[in-house]
Design brief:
The complex is a heterodimer of chains A (71) and B (465). With 71 residues, chain A is mainly α. Chain A has one domain. Chain A has 3 helices and 2 strands. In chain A, strands 1-2 form a two-stranded antiparallel sheet. In chain A, a hairpin with a 2-residue loop joins β1 and β2. In chain A, α1 runs antiparallel to α3. The model of chain A has no long low-confidence stretch (mean pLDDT 86). By secondary structure, chain B is mainly alpha-helical. In chain B, α1 runs parallel beside α16, α7 crosses α18 and α9 packs antiparallel against α16. The longest helix of chain B is centred in the last third of the chain and has 34 residues. The relative contact order of chain B is 0.18. Helices cover 76% and strands 0% of the residues of chain B. The chains are: A mainly alpha (71), B mainly alpha (465). At the A-B interface, α1, β2 and α3 of A face α5, α10, α11, α13 and α14 of B.
Chain lengths: 71, 465
């Protein structure tokens, strides 16, 4: 059986990394304000919820019922 | 009235400490420092996210936006955001290692895996050196916050009273004190931030702040130099978020790896108050009262806009923020000295020794906060540079079968020296976070040393140090 670790790392760590770090210089090129704040700051705030969503996907789709979690 | 509200809420916190002490009055060493690894997801959550709503966050985040604009806010929230998914995957592994080696402190992990006294000393002394200024900074922050709120408490009497209260919490309930009080602290902090943000929104709509903000802090985008610094700092401090000996000690209180993962899921969402803090900072910069210091951005706004009883709520939240971190630091540094620096003490001796260290640490922190504020502030900037250097060693404990303990020790020292040296000499290397440069050197030495001279496998290590 293939390990689930690669997809969990991709979703739980890779996606937030791309969103928060890799996309930063791209979003930063948007010289606009939304809700009174610069676009790049709004983008960071958006990732509060998106990062939790990525971790929740890992938790509910795998880790919550994974046998090695029963410590 | 504010003082009455403030004192009442501190009284409630003391009640929570006494509640946490019930059934644990004569706590064993393991119960005193890591709650016998009994904490579930809720207590662990509030202990772990404590840094998000700390006195540093309350003063430093809005103060940074006030002084530096967007660039500061981006890396400040970015590193906490990046650290949480890293912790989701790494922290359960660290917890399992702590349980396997019966670790109460970060150096215990290294002892359990390597049984190498020089490495234990390097980790212990590094941890102490980089944590010591943090305590003094809590007193500095408390002085700024409570003095700025104008509730009549300031200076050394306030700091001394806070120090006494911190010791009482430590002595009464050990690690259960910051765990229980952090729930009240976070409730008060969130209430305080919401109150001030709502008061600001009554005066101005957020989009009306944008033109003024653009004038006072320049462009809404980052320069290429600021981008490089922000990205490298987010990565570096994100890696270091849970490497702090303080956060490690809290992690060791968990009941299970499952409890840790469950707590980590909601942590990024818990940062939801930072947009409100940013809004307050922007209003303070554009329309707010004149301030003596950027760090007064939130506190000055609160004092201007809130009625007196609610100022007491803000003051209590700020005070408990400092207290929770102080108590955590005492419970971290105490056993570093009594258990890792001094060896051979009985369990009762370690506990008493840690309490003696606590007294000394609090006295030192108050003195340093009063006498050497600017030096302490500068040294505090080194904290993350130092604690993140434990990462290669922790990864080696978890994943490397034949890591060389001597190389790990040398790597930590080299990373500390390079990162701190670059920072203190204000040397910029292409605007990359200097701690990250030190970490790369650290990892290279640890890995290279292990390749040249592999260390003993876990089942081959010596029986004792």
């Amino acid at each position: 059986m293939m390990s689930s670790l690669p997809w969990r790392l991709l979703v739980g760590l890779g996606v937030p990394f791309v969103g928060v770090v890799v996309c930063l210089p791209l979003v930063d090129k948007v010289p606009r304000y939304f809700f009174g704040m610069p676009a790049v700051l709004d983008w960071m705030f958006l990732w509060f919820g998106l990062t939790s969503a990525c971790l929740a996907a890992c938790w509910f789709l795998h880790d919550r019922t994974a046998p090695d979690e029963n410590d | 009235m504010a003082v009455v509200v403030f004192a009442s809420l501190l009284g409630v916190s003391l009640g929570l400490v006494l509640l946490g002490r019930r059934g644990h009055a004569h706590a064993s060493l393991r119960d005193y420092f890591v709650a016998s690894r009994q904490f579930g997801s809720v207590l662990l959550f509030f202990l772990s996210v404590g840094e998000s709503y700390s006195i540093g966050g309350l003063l430093g985040f809005p103060g940074g936006i006030y002084a530096h604009g967007v660039s500061f806010a981006v890396w400040f929230v970015g590193y906490m955001l990046m650290g949480m998914p890293i912790g989701y995957f790494l922290n359960p592994q660290v917890w399992r290692a702590a349980r396997r080696y019966d670790a109460l402190t970060l150096p215990d992990l290294f002892v359990g895996r390597f049984r190498h006294r020089p490495l234990e000393l390097v980790v212990t002394l590094s941890a102490i050196v980089f944590l010591v200024p943090w305590g003094a900074m809590q007193f500095v922050g408390l002085g700024v916050a409570l003095g700025g709120l104008g509730i009549g408490l300031s200076g050394w009497p306030l700091m001394a009273a806070t120090g006494v209260l911190a010791f009482v919490y430590v002595a009464l309930a050990g690690v259960r004190a910051p765990a229980y009080v952090s729930i009240l602290k976070d409730i008060l902090m969130i209430v305080a931030i919401v109150l001030v943000a709502v008061a600001v929104l009554h005066r101005v709509a957020p989009h009306d702040l944008a033109p003024g903000m653009a004038v006072v802090s320049g462009a809404s985008t980052l320069t290429p130099e600021q981008e490089r610094f922000a990205m490298s700092t987010i990565v570096f401090q994100g890696l270091g978020l849970f490497m702090s000996p303080l956060n490690m000690a809290f992690l060791f209180t968990a009941r299970s790896a499952r409890a840790i993962r469950r707590a980590q899921v909601g942590m990024p969402l818990y940062l939801f108050m930072f947009p409100a803090l940013a809004l307050v900072a922007m209003w303070a910069r554009v329309d707010g009262p004149p301030l003596a210091s950027p760090n007064d951005a939130f506190i000055g706004t609160a004092r201007m806009l809130l009625p007196e009883p609610l100022i007491g709520v803000v003051a209590a939240g700020a005070a408990l923020s400092g207290l929770v971190v102080l108590v955590g630091l005492c419970l971290t540094i105490g056993p570093l000295v009594s258990r890792n620096l001094l060896t051979g003490l009985s369990e009762a001796g370690q506990k008493r020794g840690a309490q003696c260290v606590t007294v000394g640490y609090l006295v030192f922190s108050v003195s340093a906060a009063i006498l050497t504020t600017s030096l302490i502030t500068r040294l505090n900037n080194l904290t993350y540079i130092g604690v993140t250097q434990f990462l290669p060693g922790v990864l080696a404990i978890l994943f490397a079968r034949r890591a060389n303990p001597g190389a790990i020790a040398l790597g930590i020292l080299a990373g500390d020296a390079l990162g701190c040296g670059l920072f203190l000499t204000a040397t910029s290397v292409w605007d990359i976070n200097v701690g990250l440069i030190g970490l790369v050197l650290n990892a290279a030495i640890a890995w290279g040393g292990t390749m040249l001279l592999p260390g003993p496998a876990p089942d081959e290590r010596p029986a004792t140090c």
